[in-house]
Amino acid sequence: MKGLVIKNTGSWYTVKTDDGRTVESKIKGNFRLKGIRSTNPVAVGDRVEIAVNQEGTAFITSIDERRNYIVRKSQNLSKQSHILAANVDQAVLVVTVNYPQTSTIFIDRFLASAEAYRVPVVLVFNKTDRLSPDERHYQQAVCQLYDTIGYACYEISAATGQGVDRLMPLLKDKITLLSGNSGVGKSTLINQILPHANLKTAEISDAHNTGMHTTTFSEMLALPEGGYLIDTPGIKGFGTFDIEPEELTSYFRDIFHFARDCKFSNCTHTHEPGCAVRQALADHYIAESRYQSYLSMRNDKEENKYREPY
Ligand SMILES: Nc1nc2c(ncn2[C@@H]2O[C@H](COP(=O)(O)OP(=O)(O)O)[C@@H](O)[C@H]2O)c(=O)[nH]1
Ligand SMILES: [Mg+2]
Ligand SMILES: [Zn+2]
Question: Could you say which EC number(s) this protein's record lists (predicted)?
Fold first, then answer.
């Protein structure tokens, strides 16, 4: 029997079978997925095969190949990763212009890593009810920038519910990762969408939680109209550490668009003559903030290269 892993609490996995049952399952045997040293071999979002036993529980006997997965590297030195979710259809990145301020670097890093994993991203600007006229202006400009690049933007207030219903059609029948810095209103948004979820907000913040627990239990919240939401605290992107510097250009859609006209095919867009990207930047076809994000991600990579022991 096949099903979808919707919850992971330590050694138990809740599997929603294709015929609509919910079966508590454990792992049988030793799953070692190619190249991943993870603390948990199965994650929410995994499609699995289970063998139900007499007690009504089951063993997970195999896992389907993943389209993608999100990992968090563990804090200790074991170099093991923890897989937070697999087979994500899309990500909703919740950002706030203020309270707290989300930097464009944070947004761009998230977008680039999502491009690398081919996960579509929608940007949700929350706390619009708190914005001053100036902040609102700024938000509109940022929205317009990302809309132009090809990322849909929604302006909402999770607190008042304003604009939230426009998100609902996007979520239907999809596995959606809800991401964003601590305090931007993810739990508030979930409570708005799923009043029975009763997620804790603010007082017990994400930052708090990650400090206290070394293991993260993940859960997918079922949407009444079909589909699932995953709220995993502290995700900064999709395994950015795997991105090669040569690939980086292709994860910035706007930069990539101009890069094909660069004189050198291996142009880094930092100093080369005949660089169409820097020309586009000078002509304001590429936003300065996007170029700065690109540079900062490049620098990370170069630093890592030197830190590598071999
Ligand atoms: N004014 C306003 N406050 C909000 C909004 N959404 C969330 N908050 C508040 O922001 C704080 C953090 O929200 P929370 O949902 O816990 O953020 P999370 O860390 O992303 O899950 C809480 O005090 C919320 O009440 C909003 O749309 N407007
Ligand atoms: Mg939260
Ligand atoms: Zn160039």
Answer: 3.6.1.-
227 and 153 within one domain: yes
Residue 46 sits in the same domain as residue 114: no
The pair of three-digit structure tokens given for residue 68, joined into one six-digit string: 């993608």
Of 42, 65, 88, which one is at a domain's C-terminal end? Answer: 65
Is 126 annotated as ligand-binding?
yes
Q: Which domain holds residue 87?
A: 70-202+212-231
φ/ψ bin of 218: left (φ > 0), alpha (ψ from -120 to 50), beta (otherwise): beta
In a domain, 240, yes or no: no
| 143 annotated ligand binder | no
pLDDT tens digit sequence for 107-131: 999 999 889 888 999 999 999 999 9
* Rg over CA atoms, the chain: 21
Q: Which ligand is nearest to the CA of 272?
A: 3
How confident is the model over 180-209, as pLDDT tens digits? 998 999 999 999 999 777 666 654 344 444
Pairing of strands 58-63, 153-155: unpaired
Q: Look at the pTM and tell me if it is higher than 0.70.
A: yes
